[in-house]
Design brief:
mainly alpha, Serine Threonine Protein Phosphatase 5, Tetratricopeptide repeat, about 80% helix, about 0% strand
């Protein structure tokens, strides 16, 4: 909480400096300070550790992504609700690479906190369907797969849905 207050007060101070530079006629300095304010405000709304973890997950480097997420202490207090949802989604995806025990609770927590994007919700529900199949819960997996089809408007997860349906036939 204190971290958020410090960021916002720093942004207000630098914004005042930017306005002062514009008033004095130093347009270049004012623009530079304005860009700095936008960077501080961006890190307020998007946590830098979550962004770094997303980057490392795209590069398929799970260890570095986990290190970036472990730098966040007390995610419920230090992150906004949306950031915490993505934090738990990333933690669940990393845990699913190791085992399915803890990952299911983390992924469900991310859904409960409210992921903003439909394709992120679809991806989490697809992961949960895979976990349900691994635990031999066929009904739950079929319900999750129908929800994935509704949420996946672009058709990016159709191949994964087909693979999970094939696995369901084997059960």
């Amino acid at each position: 909480m204190l971290n958020k207050i410090i960021r916002l007060s720093l942004a207000a101070l630098v914004l005042a400096l930017s306005v002062w530079q514009f008033v004095e006629g130093n347009i270049g300095n004012g623009i530079m300070w304005l860009l700095l304010v936008s960077l501080v405000v961006l890190t307020y709304f998007r946590n830098e550790h979550v962004l770094i973890a997303f980057y490392h997950l795209r590069k398929n480097n799970m260890d570095k992504a986990e290190k970036a997420l472990n730098r966040i202490k007390q995610p419920e207090r230090s992150l906004t609700k949306g950031q915490a949802a993505y934090y738990y989604m990333l933690k669940g995806m990393i845990e699913s690479q190791r085992g399915i025990g803890k990952s299911e609770s983390l992924l469900r927590k991310s859904l409960a906190m409210g992921l903003r994007q439909k394709h992120d919700q679809a991806m989490v529900k697809l992961q949960l369907a895979g976990i349900a199949i691994a635990k031999r819960r066929k009904r739950e997996a079929t319900v999750l797969l129908t929800e994935v089809k509704k949420l996946d408007t672009r058709g990016m997860l159709t191949d994964q849905v087909k693979m999970i349906k094939q696995q369901m036939k084997r059960i």
